[in-house]
Amino acid sequence: IKEKHGSNYNIFELSIAENFKAMLTMERELRKALMEGQFELHYQPQKSLDSNKIVGVEALLRWKHPLKSYIPPDKFIGLAEKTGLIIDIGDWVLKEACRQNKTWQDKGFQPVIVSVNLSAKQFYQKGLVEKVEHILNETGLAPKYLELEITETMAMTNEENILETMHCLRKLGVFVSIDDFGTGYSSFKYLSVFPITKLKIDKMFINENREQNQAIVKSIIHMSHSLDMKVIAEGVETIEQLKFLTEEKCDEMQGFYFSKPLPPEKLTKLLQTVG
Ligand code: C2E
Ligand code: CA
Ligand code: CA
Ligand code: CA
Q1: pLDDT of 60 above 90
Q2: Which residues line ligand 1 (CB under 6 A)?
Q3: What pTM, to 2 d.p., does this model score?
Q4: What ligand 1 atom has the least distance to the C-alpha of 257?
Q5: Which atom of ligand 1 is the closest one to the Cα of 236?
Q6: Ligand 3 center–CA 151 separation, angstroms
Q7: Where is the EAL domain (predicted)?
Q8: What is the pLDDT of residue 95?
Q9: 5 has a pLDDT exceeding 60
Q10: What's the mean pLDDT when you consider all of the chain?
Q11: CA 146 to CA 191: how far, in whole Å?
Q12: Residue 58 C-alpha to ligand 1 middle, in angstroms?
């Protein structure tokens, strides 16, 4: 308090204040973005390695900032979680993904499952199941065309509540998958107890060239199948990776090798050409 300049204490304080200000600005912008419709969903196709058909699409959030270009989710999801805004943003994402998927079905395309990423706060919120049910009713999408992705770490904490929520979602007919599998603290117990329908092998095991990765991927595939779960590989970028996964009987793949996440119009064209 004595002096305004010169001490580390002040510099520290200033940077916190500045950080805080930047956060407040972004929070305000996020709220505005939601109100003014600046969010978009892009969709990355997921292919069955068996039939070679598109069987699903993952909805990925994009923020089209009026002054900047697209802002990727990693830059703002964290703050949205901290401020609780993720609930409102998440509601929008769920509704928009279901609405879009229903629109594709109404055009007569081969039906696909839309996967939506849920953050921890969203998954733990009271009334999630009722909310999902309401959105399905409102948009007219059948529950079997919706999949919710949660991460391994989320499933591990707060086990009882998670288990109950998962069972209710399954009873509703919605699928539940574990995202980024292999990067958190896995416990074999939860894999056998939770009604999980699919594991998504994290992209680092697929596209980082480390010798052990192939062994890890093989065992995740075999384990999934012996627990009656499907398994999908994320981040597939090369033909070699695709060949390996096909040989190992992985069910599905997603990655730049086949397609980047696409804006809805582009995905519509893709679905149109493949049936
Ligand atoms: P994620 O759920 O693991 O999504 C996969 C990410 O990998 C996406 O990044 C996707 O664009 C990228 N990707 C896809 N194929 C490849 C590939 O072949 N190679 C490489 N290197 N990357 C690939 P994106 O869209 O930037 O999303 C980042 C993360 O943000 C997501 O990771 C997810 O955790 C989060 N996120 C995205 N949308 C939402 C949302 O609606 N709600 C919530 N809560 N989180 C979201
Ligand atoms: Ca995901
Ligand atoms: Ca992932
Ligand atoms: Ca991730």
Answers
A1: yes
A2: 44, 60-61, 72-74, 77, 93, 117-119, 179-180, 203, 234-237, 255-256, 261
A3: 0.93
A4: 18
A5: 18
A6: 8
A7: 23-275
A8: 98
A9: no
A10: 92
A11: 21
A12: 9
